[in-house]
Design a protein that fits this description.
2% strand, two-stranded antiparallel sheet, mainly alpha, disordered C terminus, Annexin V, domain 1, elongated, 3 domains
């Protein structure tokens, strides 16, 4: 709930203009807005959308001509609905949807897809199975990569390949299409929803493949290399997996190991290849190395799923450090560490 504005000093120019439009009412406000350029329409629409309740005394201070209306009509209310109603009086629906989408995006856009991503992967898969492959691809480009990686196998092998191919080829989802998808998801799943923006499409798919079960990724690789060799190879170059950690120098690898807690590190190394395990151990001081070896030997049998989760945690730690520019990831052959 937005708090009523009490101090006119806190209003900027666009907000003061928005109050004027609200005081004029829909018909006169719409007539006046038609005379503005796109930039001013965006600014005033954004202001109307976020104003909330405007007490009469504030409206009187913003514009003296409003005194009669404010005195008899009380407070005026700015809302998304009021802003959209005004725009529809003089703009086509497609343009109104575009403007409102841009206004709504920064306010609450991420919440819907974050909430949708929090659903069980089987629930998501059951929901999207009845949709067209292109719609499924659009939805999975908006959810978190680790969630999409769990949902894809539930679609079946052939359909999964079709959807992945469409995701790779999808530069962006047209605004009106995304609005329809979000409206459907909102009504059927979420209590509140808007829109969100995605990362670079190839990097998004690289992140998804990083989270995909290794054995499953190996299965789809051959098919994708045949179907779409160039874009798929470009995506693979942006991937960073647990095996790639061996290419980090000792100092960087030590930093990565400090990003995880508990038994994550010994669990990850229990299922690692010998050369990778040795690289990790060599990056540690002697005492820390001995303690890690003791933990690994005392763990007993471990499940492959748990090993994969632990290894993914280390990869996530490396990616976070790289994003913070604490370490540099070797993503091509020129960055190989030679020892």
């Amino acid at each position: 709930m937005m708090k009523p504005i009490k101090d006119i000093k806190k209003l900027n120019g666009a907000e003061k203009a928005a109050i004027l439009f609200l005081c004029l009412g829909e018909e006169q406000g719409s007539d006046l807005m038609q005379r503005l350029d796109d930039y001013d329409i965006h600014e005033i629409t954004r202001a109307i959308s976020g104003l909330g309740t405007i007490p009469p005394q504030v409206a009187e201070q913003v514009i003296s001509e409003f005194m009669d209306n404010a005195g008899s009509g009380g407070a005026v209310v700015g809302s998304m609905e009021m802003a959209e109603t005004m725009l529809r009086n003089f703009l086509p629906d497609s343009r109104v949807g575009e403007i409102m989408g841009e206004i709504q995006g920064p306010l609450v856009g991420r919440n819907m897809w974050e909430n949708f991503s929090a659903l069980n992967e089987q629930v998501i898969a059951n929901y999207i199975k009845g949709e067209h492959d292109q719609t499924i691809a659009a939805i999975l480009t908006k959810v978190k990569p680790d969630v999409a990686a769990k949902v894809l196998p539930l679609l079946g092998h052939e359909r999964m390949l079709d959807v992945i191919e469409r995701m790779i080829a999808m530069d962006s989802v047209p605004r009106h299409v995304l609005a329809q998808i979000e409206e459907t998801v909102q009504h059927e799943f979420m209590s509140s929803a808007r829109r969100s923006s995605g990362p670079d499409p190839q990097q998004r798919m690289a992140d998804l493949f990083n989270k995909l079960d290794p054995s499953l990724f190996e299965k789809v690789t051959e098919d994708l290399e045949t179907r779409i060799p160039e874009p798929f190879n470009a995506i693979k170059q942006k991937m960073f997996t647990f095996e790639d950690l061996i290419r980090l120098d000792a100092n960087s690898l030590a930093r990565v190991m400090r990003t995880v807690e508990g038994n994550t590190l010994p669990l990850a190394l229990r299922g690692a290849k010998k050369e990778i395990r040795d690289h990790f151990l060599n990056a540690l001081p002697a005492r820390s190395r001995e303690m890690l070896l003791e933990e690994m030997s005392s763990m007993g049998p471990v499940r492959g799923r748990d090993v994969q989760t632990a290894q993914s945690a280390l990869v996530d730690g490396a990616l976070e450090l790289a994003e913070e520019e604490v370490i540099r990831l070797p993503l091509d052959d020129d960055d190989l560490i030679l020892e």
